[in-house]
Amino acid sequence: MTMTKMAIIYYSSTGTNYQLAQWAEEAAKEAGAEVRLLKVPENAPQAAIEQNPAWKKHLEATEHVPEVTNDDLEWADGYIFSVPTRFGNVPSQVKSVLDGAGGLWFQGKLIDKVVSAMSSAQNSHGGQEQTITNLYTTMFHWGAIVATPGYSDDSIFAAGGNPYGTSVTVDGEGNMQEDVEAAVKHQAKRTVDITNRIANN
Ligand SMILES: Cc1cc2nc3c(=O)[nH]c(=O)nc-3n(C[C@H](O)[C@H](O)[C@H](O)COP(=O)(O)O)c2cc1C
Questions:
Q1: How far apart, in whole angstroms, are the C-alpha atoms of residue 120 and residue 167?
Q2: CATH assignment of 5-199?
Q3: Among 7, 127, 130, 175, which is least packed, fewest CB within 10 Å?
Q4: What is the four-CA torsion angle of 19, 24, 29, 34, rounded to 10 degrees?
Q5: Which positions fall inside the Flavodoxin-like domain (predicted)?
Q6: What's the whole-number mean pLDDT along residues 59-76?
Q7: Cα of 13 to ligand 1 centre, how many Å?
Q8: H or E segment to which residue 167 belongs
Q9: Ligand 1 pocket, 127 CB below 6 A?
Q10: pLDDT, tens digit (0-9, with 9 covering 90-100), for 70-83
Q11: Residue of 122, 124, 134 to test ligand 1 pocket, by largest number of atoms within 8 Å of CB
Q12: How far, in Å, from the CA of 15 to the mean position of ligand 1?
């Protein structure tokens, strides 16, 4: 039996979703998966980045993280996404990656990938659930198997109770308002478990 291959794909301007992705990476490895932690390429104008010291600092601190490519999407049996809310939707950087997978979709190579998603926003009702379900809409088109956490573990209640995927509220200084580490790790392990069953490696 080969190891289940998981791609943990995140976009982050100021580090929140990078942290969620790192917790997911740790848990997915613990669950026995072969894991690639991958960032969504930044495509914002340098002038915009320069105006936000936290954004610039985060970009520099994550220069070593490989950028996700279509080869990674083809390679993985399952994906865990972590993306911040942008007006209730995924950032344009993430949409670029999704749209860039059109060729893979056309060849049927995204069918039966197992997918689960996480998010963050500045307000507790700022669009986290909407962002996750908007991402899942694309996954439905891909023929992916969307694996939500539902209420499959007590950690989900402690994290704010988002059944679509773990989400966190983060203030302007980047401080998380809920303790979501356990929920992220549960979601990652559950996604590996479901991917194991679907991929049948
Ligand atoms: C263009 C833009 C739009 C945003 N829209 C929302 C929003 O609709 N609701 C909200 O609560 N936060 C919103 N935010 C705040 C981000 O969701 C927040 O900065 C992000 O979750 C932090 O994650 P990161 O540290 O991984 O970048 C927005 C931020 C930007 C830059």
A1: 5
A2: 3.40.50.360
A3: 175
A4: -100
A5: 6-192
A6: 98
A7: 9
A8: strand 167-169
A9: yes
A10: 999 999 999 999 99
A11: 122
A12: 12
